[in-house]
Amino acid sequence: MKYGLKESSMVILFLFILIFLPLLLLIVITPYSLILVPIWASGMMPPLWLFINYRYLKIAPEEFRIKDNYVGVVITSTNLELHQYRFIYGSGILLLIEYLKRKNQPFKLLKNFDKAKFKEMIDDKKCNGMYILGHGLRHGLRISKDEVCFYCEFKDAPKKDFIIQLHCNHLKGKSLADFLHAKEDFPTDKKRYDIENRKYFLEKLKQDFNIDTFNIFSDFIKFQIKNILRS
Q1: Which of 3, 69, 100, 216 is most buried, judged by most C-beta within 10 A?
Q2: Going edge to edge, which strands form the sheet with 148-150?
């Protein structure tokens, strides 16, 4: 079937409204947060948010201002089943990393998970705290479709100041914080959902930098989105 000029123009207009206009609003217009934030905060994750965090992790620095002590950030972004990545990217990797950068907190980012590097980070006395984002249970971290790295393997590692397990903590057992005698910030003994992680990051941003939910896009994320789309 052949289309005339009028029909072709309608198709182009439809594609613009469906694809390019939302992106333009996201980058340029500040008041869009009045529409997007309630959807975002409710747990209904727009695919664009997942893509932004996926791209952000690709370009995020693996080390930031490390001179002596640092915190470790572990993201299990490899070797999992496809549907499991929604939780990881939906949690808001961008929020966590940019929060640490705003604090001028030295960190080391393990984004291509490797068990040997994970152990090296835990055993490093200069690593005084850890954020662990992925899938798991109270007693371990899932590192592939068929393998769980159990935290009891690290019971003799150096103590940490804090451990934040940003993954499910159900099925009982001891956490990594228990084994390393660390403060367990943001604790739970239940399953974890990505909206809970986002709310935790937002609370930290509000508490430390007075950035509230309705300004998070215009004051904090928009600049990073532009960098991601340029990369």
Answers
A1: 216
A2: 136-137, 140-142, 148-150
Residue 198 is assigned to a structural domain of this protein:
yes
What pLDDT is stored for residue 82 in this prediction?
A: 81
Instruction: Report the amino acid identity of residue 57.
Output: L
Are residues 52 and 228 in contact, defined by beta-carbon separation less than 8 angstroms? yes
Structure tokens at 192: 């974890």
Instruction: Average pLDDT across each block of 10 residues of the chain; the chain has 231 residues. List them in order.
Output: 55 56 51 50 64 88 95 91 88 92 96 92 97 96 92 96 96 94 93 93 90 63 64 63
- pLDDT value at residue 15: 55
Beta strands in the chain (DSSP E): 63-64, 70-75, 107-110, 127-133, 136-137, 140-142, 148-150, 162-166
CATH of the domain at 189: 3.40.50
Q: How far apart are the first and last CA of the chain?
A: 39
Position 124 in a domain: yes
